[in-house]
Amino acid sequence: MASDNDLTSMTVSLPTAQKDYVKEQATASGCSTPSEYIRRLIHADQKAREQEVLERRILEGLDSPARQMSNEDWKDVRATLKAKLGKRQKAQ
Question: What is the pLDDT of residue 2?
Answer without folding.
Answer: 54
